Amino acid sequence: MTIAFFSILLVLVLSAISVAASSPNRNGSDTDLATLLAFKAQFSDPLGVLAGNWTTSTSFCHWVGIRCSRRRQRVTALSLPDTPLYGPITPHLGNLSFLSVLSLNNTNITGSIPHDLGRLHRLEFLRLGYNGLSDSIPPTIGNLSRLQVLDLKLNLLSGSIPLELRNLYNLAYINLMKNSISGSIPTDMFNNTPMLTYLNFANNSLSGSIPSCVGSLPLLRNLIMHYNHLTGLVPPSIFNMSKLQGIYLTHNYLTGSFPTNASFNLPMLQIIAIGQNNFTSHVPLGLASCQYLKVISFSLNSFEGVVPTWLGKLTRLIWLAMGENGLFGSIPRAP
Ligand SMILES: *[C@@H]1O[C@H](CO)[C@@H](O)[C@H](O)[C@H]1NC(C)=O
Ligand SMILES: *[C@@H]1O[C@H](CO)[C@@H](O)[C@H](O)[C@H]1NC(C)=O
Ligand SMILES: *[C@@H]1O[C@H](CO)[C@@H](O)[C@H](O)[C@H]1NC(C)=O
Ligand SMILES: *[C@@H]1O[C@H](CO)[C@@H](O)[C@H](O)[C@H]1NC(C)=O
Ligand SMILES: *[C@@H]1O[C@H](CO)[C@@H](O)[C@H](O)[C@H]1NC(C)=O
Ligand SMILES: *[C@@H]1O[C@H](CO)[C@@H](O)[C@H](O)[C@H]1NC(C)=O
Ligand SMILES: *[C@@H]1O[C@H](CO)[C@@H](O)[C@H](O)[C@H]1NC(C)=O
Ligand SMILES: *[C@@H]1O[C@H](CO)[C@@H](O)[C@H](O)[C@H]1NC(C)=O
Ligand SMILES: *[C@@H]1O[C@H](CO)[C@@H](O)[C@H](O)[C@H]1NC(C)=O
Ligand SMILES: *[C@@H]1O[C@H](CO)[C@@H](O)[C@H](O)[C@H]1NC(C)=O
């Protein structure tokens, strides 16, 4: 009776041990290891950076480009900027559930951005700029509610800007410069992104108008949308932003005149580059109160009237381009 009881117990204990030993995913740390090996396996890695270092003889927390959490053996950062990897990002990367930094800037990665990255709900920094990534930005990126930096500049991305990006409440920096992104900017894209300080959509194929919600971003310092196909009026709210330092809208199809100086309040403005559009009417008087102004670039528009004398009072001005407009009069002297 007792012997039978103990042998049953022994069998149970032994089988529990063997299940533990053979299970491929005993804990999250094993999932991270399997994920990193799947990530590595996709790359040709011509300099052997991963081949020589990412070996199972050492804990992955000591691998080049990996940072782990202190308490658990979980990957919190995967950062290999400027490392030639050559190949696609495996969708398995979505399994690194503790990841907060993913930085693969300038690594010659190709293929599309996996939808699975939208599962990295702790992600704060996503830097994939200077690569050969193609296809459209997956809407699942909008699920990354802790994301602060979204840097996808200089890739081959196409399609339109996903509506879902409006859910990135913590976004401080977005850079989509120099891709082939088309379509219009979602009208309510910036209704819930109050932390945004830097917005760069330059050198794409965006059309439609600039949404007026851009003008209600309280911390925005740089608005960069040059070299697109944007049309219509610039929302007046953009000329009433207390932190704005740079407006870059060169080479679009923008029209209209500027608000009168009663509703023109850009106290921090340093650079206004709006050449190669079709702005009309007078050079906005509101600029006269922008004491930090360094660059005014207004060439190739339809501005009219006399070149204003107050330009001579902008003591920090180092660049003034106003050619190819309907302006006349003499160039004002500095005081
Ligand atoms: C998870 O498994 C790894 C070995 O694969 C081990 O080093 C680590 O201590 C385990 N962590 C926990 C919390 O059990
Ligand atoms: C991998 O790289 C890290 C960081 O450069 C280094 O500390 C570690 O010794 C390397 N491991 C191997 C096995 O080369
Ligand atoms: C990891 O992610 C891939 C793709 O998203 C999925 O198919 C796979 O089941 C996951 N593996 C683990 C161990 O969670
Ligand atoms: C990304 O890589 C490029 C090329 O090496 C470099 O110029 C740029 O400063 C890097 N950007 C970031 C944010 O690391
Ligand atoms: C690798 O990336 C660099 C920087 O983006 C780029 O200059 C180079 O042409 C790329 N190489 C290939 C073979 O695509
Ligand atoms: C992630 O985003 C997709 C597409 O926007 C959505 O269908 C899905 O429900 C989201 N998942 C979670 C867990 O929020
Ligand atoms: C954007 O396009 C203009 C005109 O083609 C070009 O001069 C500029 O270098 C481009 N910017 C980048 C970052 O490629
Ligand atoms: C308009 O601008 C001029 C020149 O800076 C300034 O003297 C004037 O007070 C401004 N008027 C209003 C209503 O802001
Ligand atoms: C300018 O912005 C301030 C603060 O956001 C707001 O109170 C004010 O009504 C705005 N003025 C105009 C003319 O839009
Ligand atoms: C620019 O606007 C003016 C006035 O609205 C118009 O006469 C002109 O045809 C426009 N020019 C271009 C190139 O669109």
From TrEMBL:
Gene3D superfamilies xref list: Ribonuclease Inhibitor
Secretion signal, residue range per the UniProt entry: 1-21
Gene: LOC123063223
Principal subcellular localization: membrane
One Pfam family hit: LRRNT_2
Single annotated GO MF: signaling receptor activity
Domain of life per record: Eukaryota
Membrane topology: Single-pass type I membrane protein
Official protein name in the record: Uncharacterized protein
GO CC, alphabetical: plasma membrane
Domain Disease resistance R13L4/SHOC-2-like LRR: 90-323
Any GO BP annotation: detection of stimulus
Subcellular localization: Cell membrane
PANTHER family registered for this protein in UniProt: OS01G0149700 PROTEIN, OS11G0691800 PROTEIN
Membrane-traversing stretches: none
Keywords: ATP-binding, Cell membrane, Glycoprotein, Leucine-rich repeat, Membrane, Nucleotide-binding, Receptor, Repeat, Signal, Transmembrane, Transmembrane helix
Residues annotated as domain Leucine-rich repeat-containing N-terminal plant-type: 30-69
